Known about the structure:
This protein is an alpha/beta fold and 227 residues long. It has one domain: Ribonuclease Z/Hydroxyacylglutathione hydrolase-like (Metallo-beta-lactamase, Chain A, 4-Layer Sandwich), CATH 3.60.15. The protein has 6 helices and 14 strands. The strands form 2 sheets. A 7-stranded mixed β-sheet has the order 6-5-4-3-2-1-14, with helices on one face. A 7-stranded mixed β-sheet has the order 7-8-9-10-11-12-13. The radius of gyration is 16 Å and the shape is globular.
Amino acid sequence: xxxxxxxxxxxxxxxxxxxxxFDPFIxxxxxxxxxxxxxxxxxxxxxxxxxxDHVADVELIAKNTGAKVVGVFEVVSWFTxxxxxxGMGMNTGGxxxxxxxxxxxxxxxxxxxxxxxxxxxxxxxxxVVTTPEGNFYFAGDTALTMDMxxxxxxxxxxxxxxxxGDFFTMGVQDAITAAKFVKTDKVIGLHYNTFPPISxxxxxxxxxxxxxxxxxxxxxxxxxxxx
Length: 227
């Protein structure tokens, strides 16, 4: 499984010959200005909710790649009305089989959701993804929630992708608790340092996770890494 961090909460996962892209927000992100969005691969674009900083590049990437857009029904319907024909609208608790032995389960997230034009975006979600090469949890934008304790019942989580920037989502300490809830010792940090309210001390964050016997990875934007 190869993971590429594209900044903010956008992550590309290459697994079982497929490219899964989560929450594409690249072109408006100054920290990702060196990324050529036209070269970002995707077979599936998975959306945790409808906020602009998670869906900004959906239309462009979907039209470039023909990727299937997966998310909550209301979010996918909004993109369908904008001309994206290859969509799969689900809802919390649902499970879907993709291709190549990959399955996704849509799980609860505690946040808010609306589309860039103010349209109703349904409920925010995260994804538990099982694959032949390992399983991971993409939390999306969320607060810490006791529901996370259910996730190990769905799958053994090898890596959790968790927001750590605080203010709009969990901060570092709550993300450490979330990692314990989902029973993983490997975390990729998301949703930090993009805007002033979510700026963090990254060295302190890594140290705090280490003190809890959890490895926090903060990948360089655009650099693919095998896990």
